Hints:
Elements (H helix, E strand, L loop, with lengths): L1 H5 L2 E9 L4 H13 L13 H19 L9 E8 L12 H10 L9
Antiparallel strand pairs: 1-2
Amino acid sequence: VTKLESAGFEVLRVTSFISVLLPLMALSRWRDARKTRGPSASELHVSPPVNTALRAALTAERALIRAGLSFPAGGSLFVIARRASGPAEALPRRRPDDQEDQEKDGDCGCRRLG
């Protein structure tokens, strides 16, 4: 979040997701860390009933996030942000080598900022 703000973004929403499964993820990684071979392929294969239960948990979590609930911890971070300085600044900045390429190859299709 700090990096986004320092890059000129206004942070509108921050929440973790895959939160309800975080204890299972932590347990799985702890178990794999104790092995000498590293993560097992069995972690990627789950039975259909387990997969259905996990999907239901994530569906419920997604509904809670859409309803406005924010989770403090999870497997991933979800951030909604926008450029704080307005729409013109949201265009990609030209790199110095873009201008050289344009001079060599004609119009590169880039829009020049103000």
